[in-house]
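sorry for the late reply, my laptop died twice this morning and i had to redo everyting from scratch. anyway the thing you sent over, i finally got around to it. pasting the sequence first so we're on the same page, its 286 residues, then the predicted structure underneath. double check i copied it right bc i was rushing
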Amino acid sequence: MAEENINSRDIPNPIQREVRQRCGFGCVICGMPLYEYEHMEEWAQVKRHVADEITLLCDQHHREKTNGLLPKETVYEANKNPFNLREGLSKPYNLHFSGNEACIEIGGNSFTCKDEGYGTAMVPISVDGTPLIGIVLADGHFLLNVVIFDEFNTPVLHIKNNQLFYSAEPWDIQLTGTNLVIREGHRKILIDFDFQPPNKIVINRGRFLRNGIEILVRPTNILITNNSCLLSGNHAHNCHGGLIIGHHEKPIGGFFGMQNIPRYLGNRKEALKFEREVTKNHQNMT
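ok and here's the structure:
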């Protein structure tokens, strides 16, 4: 149990992370992924940060507790059995995207789409027939679809038509402002999203995993470690497909497609070495 006595109200990061993990990364009562840290015993009385004495509450339930509408006993009971851990998934949260145009930036590559009538859609990344990222534009609506898998092909995050929900299994999940980060471990980012409503998403860093395929996203490039393929500075507009990997029963046209690709066997040293060399050469040229 982490504890720190301090005069500041700011909760140290290690204690925040311990609280998030224990509470399932959401409000312990309703599971909302937008939450605040709440000292179950009032801060003014205890003047300390003890992980077991802190919980997560969404804005509504936090205000209800502060105003006396939500009994402290109810919060304590929910803290013992948080919503997300009980359900296995977070409460769905609706992202606010709209408009006739969409832009997704992934590791220095951009994918844009403009509504051209019924059926306008784009799949920036797809592996073996599974769209890992997809967008649909129709009648002023911008619908984002994302699925993030772990190394065991288990989905840990899903955005379905702008509705976001995630598993409580990852090591850490934070939705802070417009930034969503899922970590596999200390300093091991699985995915880093920056949502920029109404019509833009930036994927800064992470790993897209599916069926032995590993796609690493860096701030300036995409690296497919299976075959050391590096993509940087590409732009695709109104292509139905972007990066299309593996077998697809229904062929998808895209700007970059690979069918016969070796599956990930755990050794990516050569791919990372190649990435460093290409990046170094590019820097020397500029």
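The first strand starts at residue 3 and ends at 5.
thats about all i looked at so far, will dig more tmrw
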